[in-house]
UniProtKB/TrEMBL annotation:
Domain DUF4440 residue range list: 12-115
Species of origin: Flavobacterium granuli
Name of the molecule in the record: Ketosteroid isomerase-like protein
Domain of life: Bacteria
Length: 126
Protein backbone atom coordinates (compact mmCIF):
# COMPACT_ATOMS: atom_id res chain seq x y z
CA UNK A 1 0.00 0.00 0.00
CA UNK A 2 1.35 3.43 -0.92
CA UNK A 3 1.76 6.26 1.59
CA UNK A 4 -1.20 8.11 0.06
CA UNK A 5 -3.39 5.00 0.28
CA UNK A 6 -2.44 4.56 3.94
CA UNK A 7 -3.30 8.18 4.66
CA UNK A 8 -6.67 7.76 2.94
CA UNK A 9 -7.40 4.53 4.84
CA UNK A 10 -6.55 6.04 8.21
CA UNK A 11 -8.28 9.34 7.40
CA UNK A 12 -11.51 7.31 7.08
CA UNK A 13 -10.76 5.47 10.35
CA UNK A 14 -10.08 8.79 12.10
CA UNK A 15 -13.22 10.35 10.60
CA UNK A 16 -15.26 7.46 12.03
CA UNK A 17 -13.57 7.95 15.42
CA UNK A 18 -14.45 11.67 15.27
CA UNK A 19 -18.11 10.87 14.56
CA UNK A 20 -18.15 8.52 17.56
CA UNK A 21 -16.58 11.18 19.79
CA UNK A 22 -19.02 13.93 18.83
CA UNK A 23 -21.89 11.54 19.47
CA UNK A 24 -20.80 11.77 23.13
CA UNK A 25 -21.98 8.16 23.48
CA UNK A 26 -19.65 5.73 25.22
CA UNK A 27 -20.96 2.73 23.29
CA UNK A 28 -20.14 4.41 19.96
CA UNK A 29 -16.65 5.37 21.12
CA UNK A 30 -15.97 1.82 22.33
CA UNK A 31 -16.40 0.60 18.75
CA UNK A 32 -13.25 2.56 17.79
CA UNK A 33 -10.92 1.75 20.69
CA UNK A 34 -9.36 -1.16 22.55
CA UNK A 35 -10.49 -2.07 26.05
CA UNK A 36 -7.30 -0.53 27.47
CA UNK A 37 -7.29 2.73 25.45
CA UNK A 38 -5.91 5.79 27.23
CA UNK A 39 -5.87 9.52 26.48
CA UNK A 40 -2.76 11.57 27.18
CA UNK A 41 -2.99 15.34 27.30
CA UNK A 42 -0.99 18.24 28.67
CA UNK A 43 -3.50 19.07 31.41
CA UNK A 44 -4.62 15.67 32.68
CA UNK A 45 -1.61 13.49 31.95
CA UNK A 46 -2.55 9.84 31.41
CA UNK A 47 -6.34 9.58 31.50
CA UNK A 48 -7.74 6.03 31.58
CA UNK A 49 -10.84 5.45 29.49
CA UNK A 50 -12.93 4.92 32.63
CA UNK A 51 -12.20 8.51 33.69
CA UNK A 52 -12.89 9.83 30.20
CA UNK A 53 -16.17 7.93 30.04
CA UNK A 54 -17.13 9.13 33.52
CA UNK A 55 -17.05 12.81 32.50
CA UNK A 56 -18.86 12.06 29.22
CA UNK A 57 -21.66 10.08 30.86
CA UNK A 58 -22.26 12.84 33.41
CA UNK A 59 -22.30 15.57 30.78
CA UNK A 60 -19.23 17.30 32.24
CA UNK A 61 -17.52 17.02 28.85
CA UNK A 62 -19.13 17.03 25.42
CA UNK A 63 -17.85 17.52 21.90
CA UNK A 64 -19.83 19.29 19.20
CA UNK A 65 -17.24 19.35 16.39
CA UNK A 66 -14.06 17.41 15.73
CA UNK A 67 -11.81 17.26 12.68
CA UNK A 68 -8.40 15.75 12.03
CA UNK A 69 -6.08 16.11 9.06
CA UNK A 70 -3.82 13.08 8.83
CA UNK A 71 -0.23 14.11 8.09
CA UNK A 72 1.73 10.90 8.72
CA UNK A 73 0.98 7.17 8.94
CA UNK A 74 3.54 4.49 9.76
CA UNK A 75 2.52 0.84 10.02
CA UNK A 76 4.65 -1.70 11.87
CA UNK A 77 2.92 -5.07 11.47
CA UNK A 78 -0.29 -4.90 13.52
CA UNK A 79 0.56 -1.45 14.97
CA UNK A 80 0.02 1.88 13.23
CA UNK A 81 1.10 5.36 14.32
CA UNK A 82 -1.16 8.07 12.95
CA UNK A 83 -0.20 11.71 13.40
CA UNK A 84 -2.21 14.73 12.38
CA UNK A 85 -3.62 18.06 13.38
CA UNK A 86 -7.05 18.28 14.90
CA UNK A 87 -9.53 20.91 15.97
CA UNK A 88 -12.55 20.44 18.17
CA UNK A 89 -15.19 22.40 20.04
CA UNK A 90 -17.43 21.48 22.91
CA UNK A 91 -18.08 22.13 26.56
CA UNK A 92 -16.24 21.36 29.78
CA UNK A 93 -18.28 21.92 32.95
CA UNK A 94 -20.79 23.92 30.89
CA UNK A 95 -18.08 26.29 29.61
CA UNK A 96 -17.36 26.50 25.87
CA UNK A 97 -13.97 25.11 24.88
CA UNK A 98 -12.07 24.75 21.65
CA UNK A 99 -8.78 23.08 20.88
CA UNK A 100 -6.19 23.05 18.11
CA UNK A 101 -3.87 20.10 18.71
CA UNK A 102 -1.25 17.80 17.29
CA UNK A 103 -2.68 14.32 17.67
CA UNK A 104 -0.96 10.97 17.59
CA UNK A 105 -3.20 7.91 17.68
CA UNK A 106 -1.69 4.47 18.12
CA UNK A 107 -3.75 1.75 16.46
CA UNK A 108 -3.69 -2.02 16.81
CA UNK A 109 -5.15 -4.34 14.20
CA UNK A 110 -7.50 -6.70 16.06
CA UNK A 111 -9.54 -9.24 14.09
CA UNK A 112 -9.07 -7.33 10.81
CA UNK A 113 -10.11 -4.00 12.37
CA UNK A 114 -7.91 -1.08 13.41
CA UNK A 115 -8.71 0.02 16.97
CA UNK A 116 -7.13 2.94 18.81
CA UNK A 117 -4.94 1.96 21.79
CA UNK A 118 -3.70 5.41 22.79
CA UNK A 119 -4.41 9.03 21.87
CA UNK A 120 -1.76 11.64 22.64
CA UNK A 121 -2.66 15.35 22.38
CA UNK A 122 -0.26 18.29 22.24
CA UNK A 123 -1.62 21.85 21.94
CA UNK A 124 -0.50 23.72 18.83
CA UNK A 125 1.74 26.59 19.90
CA UNK A 126 0.20 29.89 18.82
Amino acid sequence: MTEDQLKQQFQQIEDNFNVALISNRVEEIKKCITTDWVLIDSQGGIIPQESFFYVLERGLLSHSTMTKEILRVKVYGDIALVTGRGQNTGTWHEQSVEADEWITDVYKNENEKWLCVLTHLTPVKK
